[in-house]
Specification:
Layout (H helix, E strand, L loop, with lengths): L1 H32 L3 H7 L10 H10 L1 H31 L4 H13 L8 H11 L5 H24 L4 H9 L4 H12 L1 H17 L2 H6 L8 H4 L11 H36 L1
Helix pairs in contact: 1-13, 3-13, 4-7, 4-10, 5-7, 7-10, 8-9, 10-13
Length: 275
C-alpha cells in the first residue's frame, strides 16, 4: 500500500511539473502583454500592479491585425479542408491494398517526411513563378498542403489498418462498392483521428513562417507569423506589443482545440482500450 501511495504522489508531482512547464509560455505571453517596456525590464515575470490593456489595442492598430487575421484564416482553412478530404481517401486505398506498387507509393510518402523544406525552396519558387501562383493564396494553400500530405497519409493509414475488415465485408455483401464502403463505413469511424488531423494541420498552417515568407511577399497578404516581426526592429523592440500580438494569435487555435478536445480524448481512450 505504501509503495502505491508513493507512486501516486510521485505521479501527481510529475504531472504538476509538466502542467507548469506547458502553461509557462501562456503565462509569460500574458504577463508581458499587459506591461510597459519599463515594467518588463524591472519586474520580470511578476504580475504588474497595473494592467495595461491598451497594449492590445495598440498591437491591433500597429499590426493591421484584422487584415493579417483574415489572411491567416484564408490560407489555413482551405489547407486543412484539402488535407482531411484527400488524405483519408488515399490512405484507405493504401491501407486496403497490399500489392507491391502500393507499398512503394506508401514508402515514398514516408520518405518524403525526411525531406527538409529548405532543399526544395528554389524549385518550388520557380515552379510557382512559372504557374503564376506567387503572391496568391492558392499557391500558399497548395504548397502547405503538399508539404504536409506525407504526415497525414501516415496518420490515416495507420488508423485505417486498425479498422476491422469484417465491417467492410458486410457492406460489400450488401452490394456496396469501394467508394460507398469508405463513405458510409470507414469515414465515420475516423472522427477522432480527423479531429486530431484538423488540430495538427491547423497548427502547422497557422504558425507557418518559411513557406509563407517565400510565397506571400506582398504587405497586404502577410499572415500572423510574418506580422509578429514588425515589433522587432534593428534598434527598437516593442516586447509588450509583440507579446500582446502573440496572445491574440493564440486565441483562434485555442478555441479550435477546446472545441475538438472531446473527440481527441475519445480517440486516445479508444486506442488505449484496443491496445
Amino acid at each position: 500500500m505504501k509503495k502505491i501511495r508513493w507512486y501516486v504522489v510521485v505521479q501527481k508531482i510529475f504531472l504538476l511539473i509538466a502542467a507548469v512547464i506547458m502553461m509557462a509560455p501562456f503565462y509569460i505571453s500574458f504577463v508581458y502583454s499587459v506591461k510597459t517596456r519599463e515594467q518588463i525590464t524591472f519586474t520580470g515575470l511578476r504580475l504588474p500592479r497595473e494592467f495595461h490593456w491598451e497594449n492590445y489595442i495598440r498591437a491591433i492598430e500597429a499590426s493591421n491585425y484584422i487584415q493579417v487575421l483574415r489572411n491567416s484564416i484564408i490560407t489555413t482553412v482551405p489547407t486543412v479542408i484539402l488535407l482531411i478530404v484527400i488524405c483519408p481517401m488515399a490512405s484507405y486505398v493504401l491501407a486496403r491494398n497490399g500489392g507491391r506498387i502500393y507499398n512503394i507509393i506508401y514508402s515514398m510518402f514516408l520518405t518524403a517526411l525526411l525531406i527538409p523544406y529548405q532543399s526544395i525552396m528554389l524549385p518550388q519558387y520557380m515552379n510557382l513563378k512559372t504557374a503564376g501562383l506567387l503572391n496568391t493564396y492558392q499557391g500558399a494553400v497548395l504548397v502547405r498542403s503538399a508539404f504536409n500530405i506525407s504526415f497525414n497519409i501516415l496518420l490515416f493509414t495507420s488508423f485505417i489498418k486498425s479498422v476491422p475488415l469484417e465491417l467492410e465485408e458486410a457492406a460489400r455483401i450488401d452490394g456496396a462498392g469501394m467508394i460507398r464502403t469508405f463513405i458510409e463505413i470507414v469515414f465515420p469511424l475516423l472522427k477522432s483521428v480527423l479531429c486530431t488531423a484538423v488540430i495538427i494541420n491547423a497548427l502547422f498552417s497557422w504558425n507557418d513562417f518559411t513557406i509563407t515568407l517565400n510565397i506571400l511577399m506582398k504587405e497586404e497578404m502577410k499572415t500572423i507569423p510574418l506580422m509578429l516581426y514588425r515589433f522587432f526592429g534593428e534598434y527598437n523592440v516593442e516586447l509588450n506589443l509583440a507579446f500582446a500580438s502573440f496572445t491574440l494569435s493564440m486565441i483562434p487555435i485555442l478555441i479550435l482545440y477546446f472545441s475538438l478536445q472531446k473527440y481527441i480524448v475519445e480517440g486516445v481512450m479508444s486506442g488505449a482500450v484496443k491496445g
